[in-house]
Amino acid sequence: MGISSDVLKSTLQDLLPGYSDTFTKWHPLLDKIVTAGNLTKKTLEGPYREFTVVTGGPGQITQINTGNEVINGGRKQLAVRGNEYAPRMIYAYDVPRKDMAEANGKQDLAKIIKTYPERALHEFHEYLAQQLAMGDGSNGMGGFFTLNGNQQYNPTGSSSRYGALEFDASTSSQSVHGLASDTTSGWQNQFGSATSFSVDGIKTLREVYFKCQRQGRLADSGLDLMFCDEASFLNYMETLDEHVRTGSVESTDGKNYGRQSIKFVGADLFLEDSIDISNAAFTAGKGTDGVVYLINSGTFEAFTLGHNASMEGKGFFDQTSPLRIPDLDAYRFELILHLGIHTTQRRANGVVTGTAI
């Protein structure tokens, strides 16, 4: 007895929530956004989201000496608007009808699920994690948001944008979310460069950590998340020796899938497998000698587009109905991602380099 395309689709739909959750637990930043409810609360009607950045107070001070002073009022226009787009991406894969016809019983159904939908979803997750951490634009993910300020992404196909965290202590003209760093007061992330981990690695990390904490006064949370390349992670672990304090990431079913963090002050530091400092996404002095992202997850928001999961998709790894491919004995399945991410307090986040040495 063969397996119909509807059975295959419905089986995957049952797995999708669990697999998406497994991914969000595997990738710390997206986990924090989803856990905070920011992803599910923001479904847009249009192609982009605007947000307001306030760069100063609205009034001014008048000192009263005699009581006859005229109080200077007025209203300073010190608010600017940033924006971010949600790129639409489709991961398509084909399932031969011959495989479906030859499948028989639960054992073969499990094999089909392992061979096609499960691996497709897992690979899509891997690509997204790599783009978020690296921004190298590989595997068709070049339109998705990245933290790597040394790279650009293109969510609309017509206008490139820089990643959120710049590898530079000076205020450049580099634009993030449509706002230029040099003309928008406070729109600059924190940055530090260590000579090597053994010389001043811990000191540099602490300096940037507390800079982020001081800047995040109006954020809903403090700096709570850090993730880095393997060499940087092992260097930090070695300095702690027997004083290592680890945490673990568990799925919703309570199982530990091997994701552990190390405490750094009040944040959880993760080894991020997606960060490859030998990749061309990083350049000399800007990640090739190690990179640690310092994240205040409360300053990030995510949004999706779409309302009908079976039609246009709701924007978060939706599985569409299977389509028969003309002139080919196969069905086509699609996973749809229509997701945007942005920060509203760039100054409360930072990056440190030099930690892999």
Secondary-structure content class: alpha+beta
Beta-strand residue fraction? 25-35%
Shape: globular
CATH class: Alpha Beta
Instruction: Please bin the fraction of helical residues.
Output: 25-40%
Treating each run of at least 4 consecutive H or I residues as one helix, how many helices?
A: 8
Per the CATH scheme, the topology name is phage-related protein like fold
Question: Mean of residue pLDDT?
Answer: 82
Provide the low-confidence segments as ranges: none
For the largest beta-sheet, the strand count, sense and barrel status come to: 7 strands, mixed
Span between N and C termini? 59 Å
Order of helices and strands: HHHEEEEHHHEEEEEHEHEEEEEEEEE
- Number of spatially distinct domains: 1
Q: What Rg, in angstroms, do the CA atoms define? A: 23 Å
Q: What attributes does this structure have?
A:
19 strands, 6-stranded mixed β-sheet, 357 residues, alpha+beta, 7-stranded mixed β-sheet, 27% strand, globular, phage-related protein like fold, single chain
Chart the SSEs and their pairings:
Layout (H helix, E strand, L loop, with lengths): L4 H22 L1 H8 L2 H4 L1 E2 L3 E7 L24 E7 L2 E9 H6 L2 H11 L1 H18 L17 E2 L7 E2 L12 E2 L2 E2 L9 E4 L3 H19 L9 E4 L1 H11 L5 E5 L5 E9 L2 E5 L19 E5 L4 E6 L10 E4 L3 E2 L5 E14 L6 E4 L4
Parallel strand pairs: 1-15, 9-19, 10-13
Antiparallel strand pairs: 2-3, 4-18, 5-6, 7-8, 10-14, 11-12, 12-13, 14-19, 15-18, 16-18, 17-18
